[in-house]
Input
Amino acid sequence: MPTVQFNSAAFPLQENESVLDCLLRHEQKIAHACKSGVCQACLVKAVDNDATTQAQKSLKPTLQAQGYALACQWVPEQDVRVSLPALDECAVTVSISRIEPLNHRIVRLVLEVNADGQMFPCYPGQYLNITNAAGISRSYSIANHYAVDQCIELHVQHMPMGAFTGWLFTQARVGDILHVRGPAGDCFYSNPTQETFPMVLAGTGTGLAPLYGIVHEALREGHQGPIHLFHGGVTSRDLYCVEALRALESRHPQFHYHASCLKAPENLSKEDQQSNTVEVGALDEVILRHLDAGSIAQTRVYLCGAPELVQLLRKKIFLKGAKSSHIYCDPFIERRVSAAA
Ligand SMILES: Cc1cc2nc3c(=O)[nH]c(=O)nc-3n(C[C@H](O)[C@H](O)[C@H](O)COP(=O)(O)OP(=O)(O)OC[C@H]3O[C@@H](n4cnc5c(N)ncnc54)[C@H](O)[C@@H]3O)c2cc1C
Output
């Protein structure tokens, strides 16, 4: 069987095994998360050999040219040698400048590029791969425009027993150094011919982060078509940035913010009950109530967050008449953790 050479040792591959699975089976320390070729946490460099097209296909051309590949997507048929990514080649050093609560389990994480570094171009709504000092890498979506704000804003939800978010919520401090790679993802606003297509954006939890960035970018670019943003939670406690989005709505008549939650009105806060501004119901039902059948074929749809919900919404909105080429999705695929972990 072919082998994977890594850290001066050769590890035999099993049939149809990826480089990542082989290294993990041999208890090698290598960053990884989604194992689906999405999060790009398992980036490796091919040494003295070429990676497969499949292992490189979702990477930027500059990384491809330097021999980088995703270990989870690389199933070698002959011996290969890989090394961990050289941070100075493919990552930007940033430091934490702010961590502030957005709701009971989500924080805004603001990162600044260190003085000697330069941020690569990235659009609001794309995602970055962030690595902490312990070598844990995870993807987070960009909620703002770096070129405008000169900082990166991320919204991060605390996951029970999560390795990265556990560190962020209990140990991370202002000034801590992180490494950022990216960007990736095609969920961003692009309208070079200044069309007035309607936009529908939907997500729950921190699925709002990329959508928040996309909405602000569309309005900053002067988008004139109607923009409907749907953010759902189980209760109104799960919503966040509500005031900021309502303020944006009052400044831009083409922008409509729809907050919704699953639980009945008695679980809503007093303010929400009084103002009747939070709709009750499953997010898919709330969206379908508002979709405009007359313009759905022209509508651009952006869906982010929990993978099952993104899949469900994609199917339902497609069946209502949206073109599949107009539906942009970023499912937040997580590392699979076995019950015994
Ligand atoms: C394209 C993309 C964009 C993303 N954007 C964002 C974003 O903007 N904001 C955001 O908050 N997240 C985002 N994510 C998700 C993010 O990358 C991480 O997956 C998430 O933060 C969890 O990381 P973690 O290390 O804390 O959890 P991990 O350690 O990776 O754990 C994964 C899951 O398993 C659970 N778990 C861990 N250990 C155990 C155990 N022993 N028993 C049972 N369950 C366990 C955790 O609760 C968690 O739900 C995105 C993901 C992708 C792929």
